[in-house]
């Protein structure tokens, strides 16, 4: 593991910050893949959409678990609502939602890292 702190000055070194998905992201992605695969393989149980109690239970559980693991993200709402439409369970929406959360978190971290680097450069010039 890299050391992100400059020992001499006690400051963060923005050039060595690493971004990893972490165990919560991995668990969330695995659970989303399992839930989507389950809904596709057993589609006769879930095909009715909102009229299927099994579909509702699985979707409520997935929404709760993913929100617990990753925090509330707006990507979960369209996935949850689309699962109420008959036949939409054939699309891996939970997996797509978690992948989009990961993509956005990487982009946000890179933006923050760039801002830290720019602020450090401005501070060094003054």
Report on the architecture of this protein:
The protein has 126 residues and is mainly alpha-helical. It has one domain. Helix content is 65%, strand content 3%. It contains five helices and two strands, in the order E-E-H-H-H-H-H. It has helices at residues 22-41, 43-46, 53-70, 76-82, 93-125, and strands at 5-6, 11-12. The chain has a two-stranded antiparallel ribbon with strand order 1-2. Strand 1 and strand 2 form a beta hairpin. The chain is elongated and about 45 Å long.
Secondary structure elements and their pairing?
Layout: E1 5-6, E2 11-12, H1 22-41, H2 43-46, H3 53-70, H4 76-82, H5 93-125
Helix pairs in contact: 1-3, 1-5, 4-5
Low-confidence stretches: 1-6
What composes the largest sheet? 2 strands, antiparallel
Instruction: Give the rounded overall mean pLDDT.
Output: 75
Q: Helicity, in percent?
A: 55-70%
Strand order of the largest sheet: 1-2
- Assess the beta-strand content as a share of residues: under 5%
End-to-end distance: 32 Å
Shape: elongated
Q: Tell me the number of helical segments per DSSP (H or I, 4 or more residues long).
A: 5
Q: How many independent structural domains?
A: 1
String of helices and strands: EEHHHHH
């Amino acid at each position: 593991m890299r050391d992100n702190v400059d020992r001499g000055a006690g400051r963060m070194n923005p050039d060595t910050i690493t971004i990893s998905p972490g165990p919560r992201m991995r668990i969330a992605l695995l659970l989303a893949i399992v839930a989507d695969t389950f809904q596709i393989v057993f589609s006769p149980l879930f095909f009715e959409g909102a009229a299927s109690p099994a579909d509702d239970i699985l979707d409520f559980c997935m929404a709760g678990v993913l929100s617990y693991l990753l925090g509330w993200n707006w990507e979960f709402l369209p996935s949850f609502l689309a699962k109420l439409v008959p036949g939409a369970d054939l699309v891996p929406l939970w997996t797509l939602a978690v992948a989009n959360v990961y993509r956005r978190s990487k982009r946000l971290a890179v933006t923050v890292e760039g801002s830290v680097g720019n602020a450090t450069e401005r501070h060094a010039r003054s």
